[in-house]
């Protein structure tokens, strides 16, 4: 794992330079708050950000402890764009933010240590760990509790699928939910020790980009450049998972990645390709989310009563799709 990067020094340097050169104006960077750490799973996003920079958009990415903190940073104006799934925040707090691009669909695997549990029923009255409050992982685990007629004693929040995977291997967590990389690690490192519980059909947003409505309206072109960079990168990686390796090399991403992490790039994107929304989600994704998150409890009310425009701003996405076409 490599250290979280905060790039505050670069911003400070730019401010100092502007003060030193009278009459020279510097555009404010696009500030992205990422409630996680940069790993193989975010490699394609890091590459897309580099591509947006090549198109003239100055971008600063800050890695934060959780999606909750990232969302709070956007709401408070400390960041322009957040990464996560802010549906509950949008509805309950009525924060002036909107989702404008779906980054990934849910692709997770509930897992238990078989020394203690074997099936969903065994988790009645037990503790489970998920990514963060309001996340897709929490929604899945709450939904499955409801479907199986059980109630957890507690839900703990452990950001990072690789962190939860490590906690399972170390015995610090007995029941949680991991991504495809975590699943492969568990199967390789401790075959037979963990059981992956049945999930059924789930179609909903895992992570999305969201921003303050004022920022979206005042920075249309920059947002469109970012959206286009992401969609073209998603399509490239989905067509050929090896492209993720080439992008890492080109932009010198994840410089502290271990050999095991590098070896996991192609397998991860081969499996993740099906969960990459090549058209950015849009209205169809919003309606799928309404169905899933009302059942799981993250959203209140009936799915049919919820309005897309209350949660999404489709202007940038529609403009980019009109330019690059739909897949």
Automatic annotation (TrEMBL):
Q: Where is the signal peptide?
A: 1-27
Every copy of the SsuA/THI5-like domain together lies at: 53-244
The protein's superkingdom reads Bacteria
- Which InterPro entries does the record match to this protein? SsuA/THI5
Alphabetized, the UniProt keywords read:
Plasmid, Signal
A single GO cellular-component term on record:
periplasmic space
The listed locations are: Periplasm
Q: Which family does it belong to?
A: Belongs to the bacterial solute-binding protein SsuA/TauA family.
* The protein, known as: ABC transporter substrate-binding protein
